Amino acid sequence: MKTDERKLVVWLGGGVLVTGLLPLLLYWFLLGRIPSVSVSEARVLLARTNSPPVLVDVRPPEVYLAHHVEGAVSWPYQAIASATDSSQMPPSLKGKQLLLICSTGLRSSSATHKLGGRLGVEASNVTGGMQAWDAIPPGQNSAFRSFDVFEQWVVIITAFGIKPAYTLLSLVVIIWLWRQRGPDLVALRWGLIAFWLGENACATNYMIFHGNSDFWEYLHNLGMAACFSFTTYALLEGTDRRLIKYSPAKDRCAALSLCRACIKYDADVPCGLRRVFAMFLPATIVVAAMPLCADLKTAAYDTHILGTTVHYSDTLADQLFEIRYCPYMAVLLLTASWLVLLFKRQEPVPLAKLLFAAGMGPVGFGFMRLFLSAAYREDPVWFNAWEEITELLFVAAVAFILLVFRQSLFAKEPPSQTNPAGTQEAPA
Question: Cα separation of 63 and 65, whole Å?
Fold first, then answer.
């Protein structure tokens, strides 16, 4: 593996690490540092006979009038955001402990921070907002869903059969690839390492924290997104160097018969592949922004799996990463890739390829989760089952391809297809 190629893979890994740590800071800023209570805890506090808190609905007045918790006081977010001192508080709320609620818990968390910091009010955010309040029956910690025996066995098979199978298989492939130095195989190895770490974080969340840890679930999601990025880079490098032969200077590009002339032999000839890629990138940027239009809808269920209570949730923190942070990062990275390809004079393709792969990680992960959430929001058993099955198919496909083409892929140098004449191929 050449030094420049190794640097690109290192930069990809460093970029994934930095962009992966940023959401932790954003989560702490938006939610983690805000005093919060669950719906169940809020109900217990409101039921106190001695100095109960006041439930404050920060949604717009028209939304509040359409549906609100009985006894909740309307104080819209815009009024809270514009308040500069306690004199601008509604008189009925002065000196009271406040519990703030909105649709999902995001806007009320910001309002809670403003009240606690600017006005010195004792306030807490109700996590999950009205979505959680309406979904969780009084007296319960979360909503309950019952599943038939077949679906319960699906959970058992995916958790104790499919997940261990692909986790072990991915580790075997990682070890198999450990000594490989080709840039595509190195990127694939790191993609599988990210995948393996992410899936073990998922297992830790469920085995130790019963699926309730936002931190461990985030590590799971980050591992998935990083796997998408590294795998995309591996596919680009493998297709380029082993099939198309675009980058190797001495090899004949497979697209020469389409272009009829090649930039390798004539610097004044525009590269057809680069022009197509430059057109393809803006379309990809538009598609990457699609999840930003999806609504945030939290959901949480308890169910019984063969007599054991199991918790499922699609939390606000998960969705903020999947359909907000991932699309924003994808648009940023893909736009950077496009600009590099358009304006960088010397060898723009390696850096453009790196940025494109980094951007496709959040695109792939975000769209996968968006599809599963849309299709199975009310049926978390099949949400998890199809995610696990898809991951098994991914690892099995990688292992099978490596096995079939191992003699060529694991060779020290890919076979050369140099143009015998060493010059530009004449048009027909």
Answer: 5
Residues 192, 71 share a domain: no
Of the pLDDT bands very low, low, confident and very high (cuts 50, 70, 90), residue 428 is very low
Look at residue 101 in the predicted model and tell me its pLDDT. Answer: 96
274 and 315 share one domain:
yes
Q: What is the pLDDT of residues 325-351, one digit of tens each?
A: 999 999 999 999 999 999 988 888 888
d(CA 191, CA 4): 19
Nearest CA among 135, 126, 115 for reference residue 72: 126
**How confident is the model over 234-269, as pLDDT tens digits?**
999 999 989 988 888 788 888 888 887 777 777 677
Q: What is the DSSP string of 210-223?
A: TT--HHHHHHHHHH
Same domain, 179 and 295: yes
- Token pair in block for residue 62: 């028209």
Helix axes 348-376, 214-238, angle to 10 degrees: 130
Q: Is the pTM of this model over 0.85?
A: no
Same domain, yes or no: 257 and 121 = no
Percent of the chain with pLDDT over 90: 49
Specify whether 232 is located in the same domain as 102: no
- In 3D, which of 343, 306, 315, 382 has the Cα closest to residue 129? 315
Cα gap 42→119, rounded to integer Å: 22
Question: What DSSP designation does 126 have?
Answer: E
Q: Can you tell me the distance from the alpha carbon of 410 to that of 156, in angstroms, rounded to the nearest whole number?
A: 38
Q: Is residue 64 a contact partner of residue 74, using CB atoms and an 8 Å limit?
A: yes
Residues 121 and 215 in one domain: no
Half-sphere exposure of 426 (CA within 13 A, CB side): 2
How far apart are the C-alpha atoms of 342 and 269, rounded to whole Å?
16
Question: Is pLDDT of 9 > 70?
Answer: no
How high is the pLDDT of residue 13?
A: 67
Asked if 43 contacts 389 with a C-beta cutoff of 8 angstroms, the reply is no
| Distance, CA of 359 to CA of 366 (rounded, Å) | 11
Instruction: Sheet with 299-305: list strands edge to edge.
Output: 143-144, 299-305, 308-314
The candidate with the shortest Cα–Cα distance to 189, out of 201, 205, 204, 178, is: 178
Domain that holds residue 16: 3-31+147-409
Averaged pLDDT of the chain: 86
Does 418 reside within a domain? no
Burial of residue 102 (number of CB atoms within 10 Å: 0-12, 13-18, 19+): buried
Residue 8 vs residue 346, higher pLDDT: 346
pLDDT of residue 30: 65
